[in-house]
Amino acid sequence: MDSFQIFTTSTSLVDCVDKKLLVVLRDGRKLIGILRSFDQFANLVLQDTIERIYVGDAYGDIPRGIFIIRGENVVLLGEIDLDKEDESPLREVPVEEILQVQREEMEARVKRDKVKNKFLSEQGFSVDSVEFGELY
Questions:
Q1: Helix or strand or coil: residue 73?
Q2: Residues in domain Sm (predicted)?
């Protein structure tokens, strides 16, 4: 029998220490930073962290510094390929601009959802209202 085992616990994060990672949180935020530490619960410590906000083909970065993330809030995490990072087809815009566009997009989504829910309710369907960020 081969002694090779695949570990699916937080110990598999050992190879990611000191590497640049993208972490997607349950509330939808995307964080990019260097993994400095983790524990058995997959709690993470990221250094030089930025919060990246994507809207359409643009993004904006908000510097966050050192970030401690509770493991249960991590939806996805992956290493960033530093060679391909600069080849992204997305364009960087100032944070104020991306936040304004994100706010407008969110308001439009809320309006659309209200109209849709009203129509479904009038047709006799039960409508569950789920606030943004409570999807998990």
A1: helix
A2: 8-83
Sheet holding 91-92, edge to edge: 74-79, 20-25, 30-38, 44-55, 58-69, 91-92
φ, ψ of residue 128 in degrees (nearest 5): -90, 130
Give the global pTM. Answer: 0.75
Sorted by sequence, the CB contacts under 8 Å of residue 4 that are 6+ apart come out as none
Whether 59 maps to a domain, the answer reads yes
Q: Write out pLDDT tens, residues 4-35.
A: 555 556 667 888 899 999 999 999 999 999 99
Q: Which domain holds residue 31?
A: 10-122
For the chain, give me the number of helices (H) and strands (E)?
2, 6
